[in-house]
Amino acid sequence: MSAPARAALLGAARRGAGTAERGRRASRAARRICTAERRASRRIAARAGRPVRTSADGEGKGGDRASIAE
User: Fold this and answer.
1) Is 0.85 topped by the overall pTM?
2) Which helix (H) or strand (E) segment is 62 a member of?
């Protein structure tokens, strides 16, 4: 997601809210942005033929408890 889009989303989250609600909305918006960016980067990697690591391939992504314990 582009910087202007991110700013617009966070700006919309901040408008018309009390302090606590504003923080909640901003973090919710940030999470949504993060998810969208992760999806986009994975889609680009898949299109470019780079391996995309998922929990389904048995390798485990970063922080896989089972592989750390071994």
Assistant:
1) no
2) none
